[in-house]
Amino acid sequence: MKSVSLLFFLLSFALWVFTTSAQRPAEPRRPSRTDSITFFTGPYAAYLNSVYNADVIQGKSEPKPVAPNAEMLCFDKTFVVKMAAERAGSLFCLMLNTKDGFIGYNPLPNTRTADCELNIENSRFNFNLIGLAGVMYHYFATKKVNQLEYYVKTSNTDRYQYNISTRIPGILTRKTERRDYCGGKVKARAYKKDGDPAVYFLFGQDYPPEININNKAFLGNFGVGYLNTDKGLFIIMEVQEGAYNAKIEDIQVVQRCFDPTKFKKLDEETFFNKEKEIEKKKQELDQKQNEPARYSACQAAKNQLLTFQKQVAGKKNEALQKAKSGNQINNPQTQQAIMDYDNPEDAVEEMILETKYELCTVTESNNENPDPKKEKKINCLQQRLSLLQSIKSKMNAIEGNPAMDKKKKHFEKIKIFSEVYLTPVC
User: Fold this and answer.
1) Within this chain, do residues 195 and 288 fall inside the same structural domain, yes or no?
2) What is d(CA 103, CA 113) in angstroms, rounded to the nearest whole number?
3) d(CA 32, CA 169)
4) The domain boundary residue, chosen from 239, 260, 281
5) Which phi and psi (to 5°) does residue 221 adopt?
């Protein structure tokens, strides 16, 4: 699946792992009258003409910037796609707006039916949209207090476009194998790049020996869809690479729409709530700053804790503002800001300082009035402090590892942070 994701996936990351689906046996090679085979005559001519067009990648229209919740979103074609890799498989509805240049997809409820209707009244509504103009949205419904609430996660791409990267392999060479699709209405020919394991089954007006697809336009997902090349328009009906397979089971030329105006922007709501949390935290810290420690011997530990907590609140606010200032899909600065907001090292350090302050307070209290329960709590806090300091040391070692990039370090620290839940509750 590696080169497939590099070639044609519009998403920048893999979302699923799928099972291998049975392949249809290759048809015997048919006698060819010429090097070109035309499918636009005969009983399926009207159907083939209706599916064989994609204005936006043929230069007949321009990709349209799509607002997440401003107007009706419509698609003129639907591909029912069967995708499989490794040990899982699924059907998807891949919907395309071939004029304005955006696609949408949602998992089908089961693998035996092809109900691609966009019913937002369904509490399990889940829909993704990707636009050639640089937007990526995730729509979903959730049930709260016996009513549905609607959200769209934009990852800031409605304001800051992300760069779609579809790396094209170069020259595809025609092979002998042919396959039928859509109940025999669509017939496709195998093409392959020398040295590349992936095989593409293309449907087009004719089938030249070579197709150059460098820097050409693609509208689709999962490795299938419309592809404009130096030899004209093709539909990638199937892609096969090892255990990975994606195949168009059906093409429906029907308009499907849904109204996104009910959907609230999850990102804006999340940012707003986090800003409120930070402001509330600052007010609480200011109030605590004016209150003396219970024991004067612990004042320094309390001041150290409050000073650090104020620094963390300031860092979170700075990171939050940066996270709002770029798309979260492929903007490195924005991605770094998101990681900085949830810094596991800061979280562990705050726990260490909290534990030290509590340990000081309980120790002073026990010195005043000795109590076996206090002794037990002191031992527990000492054990907790030791484990937290061990976690901090592991994180420091990760930070000092030159073989890891920033993202890798962050995710490794998060794994280490899970050890916090093994520390005793005192």
Assistant:
1) no
2) 21
3) 28
4) 260
5) -165, 165
Residue 1: the pLDDT is 43
**Cα–Cα nearest to 75, from 105, 96, 59:** 96
Helical pair 299-323 and 332-341, crossing angle rounded to 10 deg: 150
Give the amino acid at 29.
R
Residue tagged 């498989």 (tokens): 89
| SS3 assignment, position 57 | helix
Buried b / exposed e over 220-240, threshold 16 CB at 10 Å, is bbbbbbbbbbebebbbbbbbb
Termini Cα distance of the chain: 49
Q: What token pair was written down for 313?
A: 């609140």
Q: Does an H or E element contain 314, and which?
A: helix 299-323
Determine the residue type at 356. K
Question: Can you tell me the distance from the alpha carbon of 109 to that of 112, in angstroms, rounded to the nearest whole number?
Answer: 9
Strand partners, 53: none
Residues 284, 414, single domain; the answer is yes
8 A C-beta contact, residue 50 and residue 367: no
The reported pLDDT for the residue numbered 162 is 84
Orientation of helix 344-368 relative to helix 299-323, angle to 10°: 160
Q: Residues 252, 287: one domain?
A: no
Q: Per the structure block, which two tokens stand in for 372? A: 């076996």
Q: What is the pLDDT of residue 397?
A: 96
pTM for the predicted model, two decimal places: 0.79
CA–CA separation, 144 and 150 (whole Å): 10
pLDDT category, 166, cuts 50, 70, 90? low
Beta-strand pair 264-265/147-153: parallel
- With left for phi above 0 and alpha for psi between -120 and 50, is residue 153 left, alpha or beta? beta
Interacting residues of 228 by C-beta distance below 8 A, sequence separation 6+? 54, 57, 58, 59, 216, 217, 218, 234
- The parent domain of residue 341 ranges over 268-422
* Count of domains forming the chain: 2
Q: Which of 208, 237, 260 is the last residue of a domain?
A: 260
Residue 71 to residues 74, 93, 129, 256, 263, Cα–Cα distance (Å): 10, 21, 14, 14, 11
